[in-house]
Amino acid sequence: MLNITGFFLFLIMSIFRKYRSIILYSAALALLLVLLRWMEWQFVLVNNSFEIYAGIIAIIFTLLGIWVAMKVSKPKTILVEKEVLVKSGPEFRINEKAANELGLSKREFEILELTAKGLSNQQIADQLFLSLNTIKTHLSNLFLKLDVQRRTQALEKARRIGLIP
């Protein structure tokens, strides 16, 4: 091992002796370039120090503002309570003429009836022996056909157009 290390040391020394002037000029040039870059950087920092500090402060306050906004502001939930009259019993009848004009299916009739009686989606699913997702799908189709977004709106519109009493 000592013999190999000595060989490499001898090889490097012989290369250095042969190309000594080139290596010294290259090292001096590299040192000069590093010194010039350092002086240029110092010149930029000295001449533009105010702009650099102002930019750093602006970035810090922007990030701080974003962080505070995310921590402080939360979406506000508005709860609207609306009274819905629910009719139940044997007098419930669906106006089939109005339903046919809207293109409602018999299953959507049943779901509309049970919704009008005040049952939840899970209760409707249990009563009709269907899955909860199927009930939600039928309700979405019903909402699309009635052009509404909520159960209460669907019941109001169904009463208004004479679909249900």
Give the SSE layout.
Layout: H1 2-18, H2 20-47, H3 49-72, H4 96-102, H5 106-116, H6 121-128, H7 132-146, H8 151-160
What keyword list fits this structure?
2 domains, Arc Repressor Mutant, subunit A, single chain, 0% strand, 165 residues, mainly alpha
Q: Which oligomerization state do the chains in this entry correspond to?
A: single chain
**Shape, principal axes of CA atoms:** elongated
What does the radius of gyration come to? Answer: 41 Å
Helix-strand makeup class: mainly alpha
State the distance separating the first and last CA atoms.
103 Å
- Into how many domains do the coordinates divide? 2
Could you list the spans in which at least 5 consecutive residues all have pLDDT below 50? Answer: none
E-strand count: 0
Strand content: under 5%
Number of helical segments? 8
Helical residues, percent = over 70%
What's the SSE pattern?
HHHHHHHH
Provide the residue-averaged pLDDT. 81
Task: Note the main sheet.
Answer: none
Describe it for me?
By secondary structure, this protein is mainly alpha-helical. It has 2 domains: 2-72, no CATH class; 96-160, Winged helix-like DNA-binding domain superfamily/Winged helix DNA-binding domain (Arc Repressor Mutant, subunit A, Orthogonal Bundle), CATH 1.10.10.10. It has 8 helices and no strands. It has helices spanning 2-18, 20-47, 49-72, 96-102, 106-116, 121-128, 132-146, 151-160. Helix 7 packs across helix 8. It is elongated. The mean pLDDT is 81.
